Amino acid sequence: MSDKAYYDYNTYLRSIFGERVQKIPLDAGMGCPNRDGTISEKGCIYCDSRGSGTGAWIRHGLSIPEQVRRGREFALRRYGAKKYIAYFQSFTNTYASPDRLRDLYDQALEFPGMVGLSVATRADCVNREVLELLRSYQKDYLVWVEYGLQSAHDETLLRINRGHDLACFEQALALTAEFGIPVCVHVILGLPGEDKEMMQATALYLSRQPVHGVKIHSLYVVKGTPLAQAYEAGEYRCLERDEYVDLVVDFIERLPAGIVIQRLTGDPIKAELVAPKWTLEKSITLQLIRDAFVRRRTRQGRFFR
Q: Is the pTM of this model over 0.85?
C-alpha cells in the first residue's frame, strides 16, 4: 500500500521498475462480437461505434508502430517517462487469430523502453491458445489481461446488453488464473437500475475473486448510443459528482488492500459527451476522491473481510 488511501497504479509500477512507466493506448482496429452480429449488432448501451477507446488513431490510418512512436514521444515530453506499456485498448483485443494477435503485439513491443503488455478484452473472447500466447510474453514483459465486467449482477448485464453473463466472466477468470496472468477488471458505477447496495455488492464479489487490479469508470452518456436515447427520454439519470465520489470510496473500502486501483474515472471526448459535464473535469474529480478518503478517515480494504 502506498502513502495514499488506496494502492494506485503508479505506485505499483514504480515498485517493479523503480521509475515512471507510462501506458501507451493503442487501437488495432479490432472488432467486437457484440457489434458484428456474432452476439449482437447493438453493442453495450453506453458504447459508441468506436468502442471503449478513442478510435482516433485508427481513423487517421496510423499503424501500430506509428501509434507507439507518437505515444512514446508524448509520454516522454509530458511525463518524462522512458519506460512504456503497450496498452491495446479499443474494442476486443483478443478477437482475432493467435497469429494475427502475435503480429500486432510484436509490432508494439519491438520499441526500446517497452516493458509491458496490457490487453483489454471480453470474457467471451479468450481461450487457452490466446492465453498461452500472452503467457509467452511474460518472460520478457509485464503482462496483464483486462476484462470488462462492469457489474456483478446478471440483470444489469442483460439491461446494458453486455452479451455475456457472470458465469462466463468467472470461467474466463479461472482459465486466466491457470496461466498465471494478472487480471484487471473494469467496472462502471451508475449503471441503469443499480443502487448503492448493488454497486457495493460488485466490490465484495470482486474481493473474493482472483483479481489483481480494478478500473472504476463513471458512466457518461455519449452521442449516438442507446443510453443517449434513454437519457434524452428522461429514462436515465446521471450520477452527480458528489454521488460518484462517495460511491468510489465505498467501492474501494470493500476491496483487499493488495488490489491495484488502475483507474478512478472515465475519459469522455468533449465533442461527443452528452452528460454529465463534470466528467470532463478529471483532475477535480480525482482530488475530490482523495479528499473524501481523508474526510471519512478511511482507506482501501476497510470493509474487506
A: yes
